[in-house]
Each structure stands twice: as structure tokens, then as C-alpha cells.
Amino acid sequence: MSSIETPPPQEQESQPGEEREMVPAPAFRPRYPGAAKLDGRVALISGGDSGIGRAVALAMAREGARVAFVYLEEDDDAQDTLALLREEGSEGRAIKRDISSELSCQEIVEETLAHFGRLDILVNNAAEQHVRRRFEEITAEELERVFGTNVFGYFYLTKAALPHLGRGACIINTSSITAYKGHPLLIDYAATRGAIVSLTRSLSQSLLDRGIRVNAVAPGPIWTPLIPASFDEEMVSEHGDSAPLGRVGQPNEVAPSYVFLASEDASYMTGQVLHPNGGTVLNG
């Protein structure tokens, strides 16, 4: 297993961050042979150019899926992910859009369908966060931006995708450990992740008659570009220390949760949240 106990100090100037600049690079390659669990299916992943999204894209590709992924502006990371998908023998499609726009989300789904002809798996994963040491520092503009990406984007992309998802399709949302524990420096971000838990539970009930399962994954401290793009060097160097396992997690330790929820192995699960978080026991 490729892992690091503690990341070395580092910082990036803008979000959502670039994987190419991280030292060491996150572990994103699947750690097991594929078993064709997603053979013939098409997945659409927001924030799929790096971090957890990239690891999910590669893991699903190894299981036979073709993958469209959305990214904001990290062209180099997106091209790297496309090359990695080709190495897995899969076909990828990189779509550069801002998911906080409903029109953009409609265009994302249209481009996916035009290229692949179908859609079976939607992974709502893109997110942003900003450290604020005092609650009063959260501006209205920032609050709207964080909710626009982390909540509205999930609603918009789901709304655009639903007419094209048939029975047996699935939606997987990314939440966070912060939805359950809170975070004193990421109050608005934690609020959005809590909203995603409620979205998952409510939407799963709403789509029962359509045969579409809806679940979520709530990762703990994972080594992704969002970390050095959010925190200062000291906080980055401590990322993961508080987890019971005593280290930061890797994206390829989280991706199998998404593959499981997308596959027939999880055919009796909907409205649930999985917790790859390094050992923190949570209720829910």
C-alpha cells in the first residue's frame, strides 16, 4: 500500500489545487485487478481530474466503465487523468465546466450523452473549502460560492442527469466526516457536507419507484489537492494526525467504496453513507 504517515509542509495558492504540484503524489491507482463489475456502463464524475475523483475514475475504468469527468480549470491534471484512463484500457472524456451553473450542468450531461450514448452512474464529487478562523470572516460571496459548488452543483447535475438514468442506475454523492463531527475552521464547508447527507437520504426515497439507488461516501482526512490548496503549511503537515489510524488516507483507499456502491454488490443499499475515515466511529 502506498501511504504516508504525515505530508511534508506545502501550500498551493488557489483552489481546487493541482495534483501535479503535490509532494508526494497521492496514490490514485487501483490496488486490485478488475472483475468487470461495471462492464459496459458509463460514469459521470464531477471533480474527476484529481484527488478522490481521479481515483474513482480509474477504479471504475478498471471495472469496465467508460468515464466522463468534469473539472474546473486544471487542464494538466485533466490530461493526466485521460492518459491514465487510456492505460486502464478505457475511454475517457474531460469536460471543463463550473458545476455551480445549472446551464453548465445541462451541457455536461448533454456532452456525456453525445459522446457515450448513455449514462448509468453519476458521482457528485466536486467541492471547495476555505479556512476561516472566525465565523464573521465568512463573506456572503464566499458562502454563495461554497454552496454553489458543494450543494447547488450536486442538485443541478442530478437534475440534468435523472431523465437519462434508467432502472439499475445509481447516484453516489461525496460528503465528509465534517458533516458528522463539524470543523471549527470550515463551518460553511461542513454545512454543505451535512446538506449532502440529507440530500442522499431524501433523494434515495424519492427514486425508489424508478429503481435508482442513491448513496454517499463521507471520507476522512485524505491526501488530495484540496488540502494544500486550503490549509497553511503547518496544518498540511498535521493532516491525518488526528485519525485513529494515525495517518492521512490515500484516494485509492476511498475509491473502492464508490465502486462497491456503483456495482451490483450494493444492490440492497440505498440512502446509506460509507465512512472511509481512518477509524473514527460515527453514527449515521
UniProtKB/TrEMBL annotation:
Residue stretches spanning the membrane: none
SUPFAM superfamilies given in the database record: NAD(P)-binding Rossmann-fold domains
Composition-biased stretches (Pro residues): 1-10
Keyword Endoplasmic reticulum annotated: no
Gene3D superfamilies cross-referenced by the UniProt entry: NAD(P)-binding Rossmann-like Domain (3.40.50.720)
Domain Ketoreductase as annotated: residue spans: 41-220
Keyword Flavoprotein among record annotations: no
Family label: Belongs to the short-chain dehydrogenases/reductases (SDR) family.
Official protein name in the record: SDR family oxidoreductase
